[in-house]
Amino acid sequence: MLLEVEQMIPPQYRRRKNGAGETPQDLFSQKHTAIVTKGESWMKNYMLVATLIATIVFAAAFTLPGGYNQNTGIPFFRSEPSLLIFVISDVVSLISSSASILIFFFFFGNLDPHILIYARI
Questions:
Q1: Exposed, middle or buried by CB within 10 Å (0-12, 13-18, 19+), for 59?
Q2: What is the structure's pLDDT at 24?
Q3: What pLDDT is attached to residue 121?
Q4: What is the tens place of the pLDDT at every residue in 84-121?
Q5: What is the reported pLDDT for 89?
Q6: Percent helix, percent strand, percent coil in the chain, to nearest 5
Q7: Burial (0-12, 13-18, 19+ Cβ within 10 Å), 113
Q8: How far apart are CA 50 and CA 120, in angstroms?
């Protein structure tokens, strides 16, 4: 929202101060501290959930349902369609949760949380 407002206002007004000596950026930051706090909380929760999903799915890939034949190492349910469905869904979840974590780090990993909130509003 701040970025959109900045584009509409002439540059000389962006640096002007009000009667209390605050610039529009300062005033916006003060008025939206609750949103910044909520955004930081959202980012932490999002990363926690994505990391937990990736961890669980990674572990599930090595513990197939039904187990393995101890002599051959081949899964017992290898001819069952349910095993194929499990493996495909496990791969899809691992790829999507890993991609989610990587995208999060790529876009948001090195930014100040205040910048993120201003860009999202």
A1: exposed
A2: 73
A3: 47
A4: 898 899 999 889 988 888 887 777 666 555 554 555 44
A5: 92
A6: 70, 0, 30
A7: middle
A8: 20
Question: What is the per-residue DSSP string for 49-90?
Answer: HHHHHHHHHHHHHHS-TT-B-TTT--BTTTTSHHHHHHHHHH
* 51 contacts 101 by C-beta, under 8 angstroms: yes
Measured CA angle at 113 (ends 107, 115), to 5 deg = 75
What's the pTM? 0.56
The token pair that represents 49 in the structure block: 């959930």
CA angle (27 as vertex; 25, 30 as ends), nearest 5: 110
Q: b vs e for 3-17, b when ≥16 Cβ sit within 10 Å of the residue's Cβ?
A: eeeeeeeeeeeeeee
At 77, which amino acid appears?
F
Q: Which amino acid is present at 50?
A: A
**Separation between Cα atoms, residue 25 and residue 2, nearest integer Å:** 8
